[in-house]
Specification:
- By secondary structure, the protein is α+β, with helices and mostly antiparallel strands.
- It has a single domain, classed as 7,8-Dihydro-6-hydroxymethylpterin-pyrophosphokinase HPPK (Alpha-Beta Plaits, 2-Layer Sandwich).
- It contains four helices and eight strands; from the N terminus they run E-H-E-E-E-H-E-E-E-H-H-E.
- Strands 1, 2, 3, 4, 5 and 8 form a six-stranded antiparallel β-sheet that branches. The protein has a two-stranded antiparallel sheet with strand order 6-7.
- A hairpin with a 2-residue loop joins strand 6 and strand 7.
């Protein structure tokens, strides 16, 4: 089984509920087990302004699903929860990003691993480091160092779920 980390985000229509429902849907995936779920973090939007604040979390799983299959399942969960892809980095009911898939690195037209902006987004790094303080990229880069060196901060508060 491969250990993976998924980033969850929502800022529309009861975002905390969307995160909870996403965790339940991920729990039901075939050949997949949830290992841990981070605290919930509130963050300001990255990229597009004029939208509500986000709630973010990271979920650690073990899965036998290939990376592209896991991505398709995550996209189906997003769609089932009302995700509409209108504007890049726009408001959404649910976003599920594959942050790390074991220590695999890949770049295909529809999937880049590790997540290409993981190392510069505190709303991904902070909850990931909560679950795995020694987290590193496939090239050995420590994500705690990336987090420490960030200049832009998006996280506002940490919430218990």
């Amino acid at each position: 089984m491969t250990r993976c980390y998924l980033g969850l985000g929502s800022n529309l229509n009861t975002p905390k509920r969307h995160i909870y429902l996403a965790c339940q849907a991920i729990k039901a995936l075939p050949q997949t087990h949830i290992l841990n779920i981070s605290s919930l973090y509130q963050s300001i939007p990255a990229g597009v302004t004029g939208q509500p604040n986000y709630y973010n979390a990271v979920i650690a799983i073990k899965t036998r699903l290939p990376a592209h299959t896991l991505l398709r399942y995550c996209q189906k969960i997003e769609t089932n929860q009302g995700r509409v892809r209108k504007k890049r980095w726009g408001a959404r009911t649910l976003d599920i990003d594959l942050l790390l898939y074991g220590q695999h690195a890949m770049q295909t037209p529809n999937l880049i691993l590790p997540h290409p902006r993981l190392h510069v987004r505190d709303f991904m790094l902070k909850p990931l480091l909560e679950l795995w303080p020694e987290a590193h990229l496939p090239d050995g880069t420590l994500l705690a160092t990336c987090f420490f060196n960030l200049k832009d901060a998006f996280i506002k508060t940490k919430k218990r779920h």
